[in-house]
Amino acid sequence: EDQVTQSPEALRLQEGESSSLNCSYTVSGLRGLFWYRQDPGKGPEFLFTLYSAGEEKEKERLKATLTKKESFLHITAPKPEDSATYLCAVQGNRDDKIIFGKGTRLHILP
Amino acid sequence: DTEVTQTPKHLVMGMTNKKSLKCEQHMGHRAMYWYKQKAKKPPELMFVYSYEKLSINESVPSRFSPECPNSSLLNLHLHALQPEDSALYLCASSQDRGTSKFFGPGTRLTVL
Q1: Residue B20: DSSP 8-state
Q2: Which positions of chain B have pLDDT values less than 50?
Q3: What is the pLDDT of residue B37?
Q4: What are A47-61's pLDDT values in tens digits?
Q5: What b-and-e string marks burial along A47-79, b requiring 16 or more CB atoms within 10 Å of the CB?
Q6: How many CA atoms does the CB half-sphere of A105 hold within 13 Å?
Q7: Distance from C-alpha of B13 to C-alpha of A33, rounded to nearest angstrom
């Protein structure tokens, strides 16, 4: 069964304190791994898609990496506006479903 | 333009009402999705349309009825809902079934 586990559940950082969020996955034939940012009461905002192990993508203070078992979302020198829930999701080869992890709630203190 | 729009933003309905949620995208995407999200939980897939045909129904109760009139529009018809159906309903689209999915802002539904 396809599964996605995100850790930690919640993370509090001081402004400027870099860290990483983890997404471990089990899927039958990875078609894509997706990272989203979600603010309370709003729809998920697309950040990255990773397709194969070794792939990396960057956007401003965020960098996503992928191995055969997990993905990391690295946040460098975060600012308070980076506070949000970060969701990881995977899609396998079996069907059109994407499976979401429970998310990491990130809070950046000024 | 990477925008998915949803209307209305908020909806309050009684258990005997009939209402519809609407979703629109003009990115030429051929796959569209409905998700339901409860507070502090991840989105749960409800339906997938691919090339205007329903390809996945995640055992959703019949009081939710999806419709895809054309490649840009997706509706969700609601009838005889229960209070536990109150949630944020999200629409998403992607160029194809395996590619990046873009979400709309959601409709906050409250069933009284």
Answers
A1: E
A2: none
A3: 96
A4: 999 999 999 999 999
A5: bbbbeeeeeeeeeeebbbbbeeebbbbebeebe
A6: 7
A7: 36
C-alpha gyration radius of chain B: 13
Cα B64 from Cα B46, distance rounded (Å): 9
- B 29-48 residues inside an 8 A Cβ radius of A: 31, 41-43, 45, 48
CB B23 within 8 A of CB B5: yes
Q: What is the pLDDT along chain A (110 residues), one digit of tens a residue?
A: 889 999 999 999 999 999 999 999 999 889 999 999 999 999 999 999 999 999 999 999 999 999 999 999 999 999 999 999 999 999 988 877 888 999 999 999 99
Give me the numbers of helices (H) and strands (E) for chain A, helices first please: 0, 11
Nearest to B48 among A42, A46, A96 (CB): A96
A92 vs A101: CA distance, rounded Å: 14
For residue A20, the cross-strand partners are: A74
Interface of B with A in 73-112 (CB under 8 A): 88, 90, 97-106, 108
**Residues in a beta bridge with B22:** B7, B75
Q: Rounded to an integer, what distance in angstroms lies between the CA atom of residue A64 and that of residue A52?
A: 12
Phi first, then psi: give them for residue B48, nearest 5 degrees.
-130, 130
